[in-house]
Amino acid sequence: MDKKIIYSGIQPTGCITLGNYIGALGNWLKLQDDDNYQCLYSIADLHALTVRQNPAEFRARTLSFFAQYLACGVCPEKNIMYFQSHVPAHAELTWILNCYTYVGEASRMTQFKDKSSKHTDNINMGLMDYPVLMASDILLYNTAMVPVGVDQKQHLELSRDIANRFNNAYSPTFTVPEPYISKMGAKIMSLADPTSKMSKSDENINATISILNSRDEVMNKFKKAVTDSDNSIRIGEDKPGITNLLTIYAAVTNKTIDQALAECADMSYGVFKQHVGEAVDTLLTPIRIKYNELMCDKAHLASIAKDGAERANYLAQKMLRKVYKKVGLYQL
Ligand code: TYM
């Protein structure tokens, strides 16, 4: 039986956050151990160019993100791990899919609207084309499932629409992908403003936990986490801060929300925040240690990325050839 394909990626901007870990990476770790799946995990470096990057910092950050995937336990023997820009078919398929995407639907994407309002001096074509490149990432490999946080759901729906449109225009070519979004932790909120998403580009350092933060940083940020004044630990729309902390606690300790509540309900806010900080630090300490080891051997990182790129290129070329043929490009 052919394995089902799983595809996901992270854009190398800012830092990998606890939100990225809980919403996406944590699920990658579960999926890689299931023999029914072949997973591909990329560093979405081309996506990151939609905002201005300092070339030297960007180059270093992409490698650092790759090492962080590995440090979290994403395993090169079980998965295909590579940099998106090392597989030219991503950009090539994007051109074809651009011709099957309407300007209207691309301009309705929430993330495009958000980002263009934040970067009014640089509303470039790439920003609008971002979800089409993401559709190419996914559709190139006949992906069945895409493990992401809830903020990527709209992009996934566009990928599905593009796939269906292409399949209807020619004949079945692309697998129509399904999102894989956990019920719990699909949207981790900012520690400084629990009504907005924890975002890797947040300028307030207290809003976000990087998976490489030191123990002191983690404990301090949880200590300062914004809650409310009624001193009861429960889930509720009126309690976004406490709800977020309970969700984080449950996710990092692999407990249900009910178990987390039963354990923490009688704590004071101060003790509860410290308890959550400890649990997060317990998760992150081995990742930090592993990361530091991995970064000492850049040649090893490069060899993993090279092997991943070769395997991904082989699969991507097969699909690209098929697509070129279907649309009628003359073949040599
Ligand atoms: P990115 O880099 O913004 O985020 C990476 C992953 O983390 C999830 N995520 C969150 N989950 C829970 N709570 C949060 N606060 C939170 N913030 C982010 C995102 O949903 C995502 O799964 N376009 C994508 C990267 C990408 C991709 C792909 C994903 C490129 N090609 C193909 C899947 C398939 C992005 O910018 O995610």
**Helicity, as a percent range:** 40-55%
Bound molecules: tryptophanyl-5'AMP
> Numbering strands along the chain, what is their spatial order in the largest sheet?
3-2-1-4-5
Q: How are helices and strands ordered from N to C?
A: EHEHHEHHHHEHEHHHHH
Q: State mean pLDDT (0 to 100 scale).
A: 97
CATH architecture of the largest domain: 3-Layer(aba) Sandwich
Quick one: CATH class of the largest domain?
Alpha Beta
In CATH, the topology of the largest domain is named: Rossmann fold
Poorly predicted runs are none
Question: What does the overall shape look like?
Answer: globular
The rounded distance between the terminal residues' Cα atoms is 33 Å
Output the radius of gyration: 21 Å
Give the name of the CATH superfamily of the largest domain.
HUPs
Strand content: 5-15%
For the sheet with most strands, the description reads: 5 strands, parallel
Report the total helices: 13
What does this entry look like structurally?
- The chain has helices spanning 18-31, 45-48, 55-72, 89-98, 103-107, 110-118, 125-139, 153-169, 215-224, 240-253, 257-264, 269-294, 298-327, and strands at 4-10, 37-43, 79-83, 143-147, 178-180.
- It has 13 helices and 5 strands.
- The protein is α/β, with parallel strands linked by helices and 332 residues long.
- The radius of gyration is 21 Å and the shape is globular.
- It has 2 domains: 4-185 and 297-327, 3-Layer(aba) Sandwich (Rossmann fold); 215-293, Tyrosyl-Transfer RNA Synthetase (Orthogonal Bundle).
- 54% of the residues lie in helices and 8% in strands.
- The mean pLDDT is 97.
- Residues 7-11, 19-20, 22-24, 44, 47, 134, 137-138, 146, 148-149, 151-152, 186-188, 197-198 line the site of tryptophanyl-5'AMP.
